[in-house]
Amino acid sequence: MRLNKFLASCGVASRRDCDELIKQGKVSVNGVIASLGMEVGEDDEVCVNGNRVTLKKNEYYILNKPKGYLSTVSDDKGRKTVLDLMPANVGRIYPVGRLDYDSEGLLILTTDGELAQRLTHPSNEVPKTYLVKIEGTMTEADLNPIRSGIEIEGGYVTKKCKAHIVQTHRDYTKIHITITEGKNREIRKMFAAIGREVQLLKRIKVGDLTLRGLDRGAWRKLSKQEVAYLNSL
What share of the chain is helix, strand, coil (3-state, %, to 5)? Predict the structure, then answer.
């Protein structure tokens, strides 16, 4: 890891300010005055003004979010947030991406801002798959406007996506839809654009990461392998 990134991750200062500290000779690595652009590892002793700094390990969780919780850390109206489902002793974790109040399913929470940015930035086109329950009967042909990109409320045209029917019933249709962007209430607006109402919206996958039988409202820590996978997306 680059020294300035290491220092910033330790909470010393911003990367730019950490570069200034390095230029001023206030940073040492293993007892030697550091230089710009140095790489450091887990076993290196890094000091600022003679005081050792250590890297805080990031925390990574997956939560099966129920309906009725906000995907935020707090709410000025006193509504329940996803942090109410997490243990009190977790670090300063933040939810990654949008999963609105009336939606449920897979939500990642982490202290790792860089991973959060990677997973949510539109240019990375990270695929997210949802189970959607629509009132009434639909056919595969009915999904074509959504697959090819459709103009939604506000005049925005969605990107092409994958969608297919997984269950039909006389009263409803269940669909899997995979999108690579995350506009506010995008899927609900996509179906509204073809005159359909969403009865259930559940995120079931981020990339190939799934809930794997995690009960509604339950959470677990992500494994190192899962974190590495998410960083590869």
Answer: 25, 30, 45
DSSP secondary-structure letter at 30? T
pLDDT digits (tens, 9 = 90+) for 175-204: 999 999 988 999 999 999 999 999 999 999
Q: Is the pLDDT of residue 98 over 90?
A: no
Structure tokens at 38: 């140095």
Residue range(s) in the chain whose domain bears CATH number 3.30.70.580: 60-122+212-232
Residues 187 and 197: beta-carbon distance below 8 Å: no
- CATH 3.90.1150.10 is right for the domain spanning 60-122+212-232: no
pLDDT of residue 13: 83
Q: Determine the pLDDT at residue 23.
A: 96
Which CATH number is 3-53 given? 3.10.290.10
For residue 92, what are its two tokens? 């300063």
Looking at the whole model, is its pTM more than 0.85? no
Average pLDDT in the chain: 94
**127-206 topology per CATH:** Alpha-Beta Plaits (3.30.70)
Element (H, E) at 118: helix 113-120
Cα gap 31→65, rounded to integer Å: 47
> Which residues are the active-site residues?
100
